[in-house]
Specification:
By secondary structure, this protein is an all-beta fold. Helices cover about 0% and strands about 40% of the residues. It has one helix and 25 strands.
Length: about 425
């Protein structure tokens, strides 16, 4: 069948529940030798479908990691045969037997045991002039970017570290099918066909394990209203053959080991047999955990044409005490680059009610030779005590029409000013 059955399991008949033509009773099992009037008997059979293993697929063409694509339906024919005894006649009652056969059709819907949702956290680097459509501008002196729908693609720069958040939820918990999470582990998609490596940078995660059940983490059951959240930091490193261009790939693999939680049987149920699974119903908790694999978020990766670094700020910022806000930009290409430097909220800074005074280039253009670096700075004088946003500074490449640095109200540096 192309897969191994769990340990201790074996096929019944030909594995499809069909009778062997040489043994007509091969597909049937005895439930009860005698069933008196008013008695109940519990009959059961075990079925198995292996979880899809995304880790064995070719990730060049694997595409979507949505486990919902693996939902399927099994139609099962259940046949029940028995001999019904009845008494006939008057005073000389005789016992007759009638052969009865009942046929039922059962449908089993196989659903993914667990759903995984990933969302990007904070990243460390500026856009650095990457040529992803979401980073393009129609006019480098404008604050507007082109409209681009890219909600599912994470834009990264080579050697950047990125934080990714993950959430696990039992997909069929509303139907009473809870699961227990044994382990969550991160794995890199690293083979000859992958354009880059993702290196886990969380020192507390041994063997790339993001979560593991132990005495410290005993609460691992996922049911209605419960989720398991985790996060990891990975560094991206493009392979040398791809450094001159850009690549699209997935941010690693997340492997989840899990156990199903069996359903409770009705009170007083009569069972046939004393096997390992005789006292359970529904999903069977096997000796070894099952595994599901999920592809990480889709991401666009580029060896960006620029590099921007902000020099260290003073450890303490005080009101009415000037300090320098400085940056260094490097042209990493072999081309001359015209860069626009703009202080985005200069009009606000000139307001008498502003939180600081600023001095420096407000709208400047600099030409950078290949591999040349340029430093520029602003002098800031805080005028108020408390939390203060630094001025919004933007750098744009005239050649590529892309942002090198693009601070917005949603992504400004917040600092505390002391008396």
């Amino acid at each position: 069948f192309g897969y191994d059955l769990p340990g201790g399991w074996g096929l019944v008949g030909n594995g499809q529940g069909e009778n062997d033509e040489y043994n007509p009773e091969s597909g049937y099992s005895s439930v009860a030798s005698t069933l008196e009037s008013g008695e109940d008997a519990y009959a059961y059979f075990d079925i198995f479908r292996p979880s899809p293993d995304l880790a064995k697929k070719d990730f060049e063409v694997a595409g979507d990691s949505d486990m919902e694509s693996h939902i399927c339906q099994s139609d099962i024919d259940v046949s029940i045969r028995y001999r019904q005894k009845r008494c006939v006649g008057g005073s000389n009652r005789q016992l007759n037997e009638d052969f009865v056969s009942l046929e039922y059709k059962v449908t089993v819907l196989w659903s993914p045991p667990v759903n995984a949702v990933f969302s990007p956290g904070s990243n460390e680097l500026f856009p650095s002039g990457n040529r992803h459509p979401s980073n393009s501008v129609t006019d480098p002196t404008s604050s507007q970017t082109k409209a681009y729908q890219s909600d599912e693609e994470l834009v990264l720069i080579d050697k950047e570290k990125v934080v990714t958040n993950g959430t696990l939820e039992a997909s069929a918990c509303v139907d009473g099918l809870d699961i227990e999470i044994e382990q969550v582990r991160f794995a890199d998609i690293n083979n000859d066909n992958t354009p880059c490596q993702f290196i886990l940078r969380n020192e507390c995660h041994k063997d790339n394990v993001l979560y593991e059940r132990d005495a410290i983490n005993p609460a691992n059951a996922l049911g209605v209203g419960s989720k398991l959240s985790f996060a990891w930091t990975a560094e991206v490193k493009m392979k040398e053959a791809y450094l001159k261009g850009s690549v699209s790939t997935n941010l690693g693999i997340v492997s989840v080991k899990w156990h199903p939680v069996p359903l409770e049987l009705p009170t007083g149920t009569a069972l046939n047999g004393n096997g390992e699974f005789a006292l359970v119903h529904g999903p069977l908790k096997l000796a070894t955990s099952s595994s599901c694999c999920f592809l990480g978020p889709s991401c666009y990766i580029e060896n960006a044409p620029f590099e921007v670094k902000m020099n260290k700020l003073p450890d303490v910022i005080q009101v009415a005490v000037p300090f320098e806000l400085s940056y260094c930009i490097t042209n990493k290409t072999s081309l001359d680059q015209d860069v626009d430097i703009q202080l985005r909220d200069f009009d606000y800074v000139k307001d008498s009610n502003s939180e600081y005074l600023v001095g420096g280039p407000t709208n400047n253009r600099k030409c950078l030779a290949p591999n040349e670096s340029h430093s520029f700075s602003f002098m800031i004088v805080p005028t108020k005590v408390g939390q203060v946003f630094l001025p919004q500074i933007s750098l744009a490449s005239r050649r590529f029409n892309t942002w090198i640095m693009h601070e917005t109200p949603e992504r400004q540096s917040l600092h505390c000013v002391l008396p």
